[in-house]
């Protein structure tokens, strides 16, 4: 049930993002084709800001969404990439999930290793974060060697 709420919540946030953006930064609700070629900022704007907010300062209300702005935990690019891959607490996984079926599988967003590296690098070098040692798609791939990934 909790996983279902997260999926529906993510969908709801992505559909209200354009209205929210009128008073904030421009929303970027991308088509699946555009998402496949998105850079780190576009991935953040399309997916991450729905919970972490456009300024990456997080939010509380129906849930608690941690701030990424000025987050000392982002000193480790590997730590950030592992969270994006596997999820953490109520944050969904954006890595491969062959175990999901039906609605859950349909709603799952599977980012490529390159997209995960790009969004991690973007967040680590923006929003008051000053970490410029970049993680690569190969580094992300090494975090899940048993699962084949998209390039």
Structural summary, described in words:
- The chain is globular, with a radius of gyration of 15 Å.
- A hairpin with a 3-residue loop joins strand 1 and strand 2.
- The N terminus is likely disordered.
- Helix 3 packs across helix 6.
- The termini are far apart.
- With 151 residues, it is mainly α.
| Secondary-structure element order, N to C | HHHEEHHHH
Strand order of the largest sheet: 1-2
Count of DSSP helices?
Answer: 7
Mean pLDDT: 79
End-to-end span in angstroms? 32 Å
Largest sheet: 2 strands, antiparallel
Shape: globular
CATH top level class name: Mainly Alpha
Number of strands: 2
Please name the fourth-level CATH homologous superfamily: Cytochrome c-like domain
Low-confidence parts: 1-25
The CATH topology annotation reads as Cytochrome Bc1 Complex, Chain D, domain 2
Could you give a quick summary of the protein structure above?
This protein has helices spanning 2-21, 32-35, 40-52, 77-86, 102-107, 113-124, 137-142; strands at residues 59-60, 64-65. By secondary structure, the protein is mostly helical. The chain has one domain: Orthogonal Bundle (Cytochrome Bc1 Complex, Chain D, domain 2).
Main features:
Cytochrome Bc1 Complex, Chain D, domain 2, two-stranded antiparallel sheet, mainly alpha, globular, 151 residues
Set out the fold topology.
Elements: H1 2-21, H2 32-35, H3 40-52, E1 59-60, E2 64-65, H4 77-86, H5 102-107, H6 113-124, H7 137-142
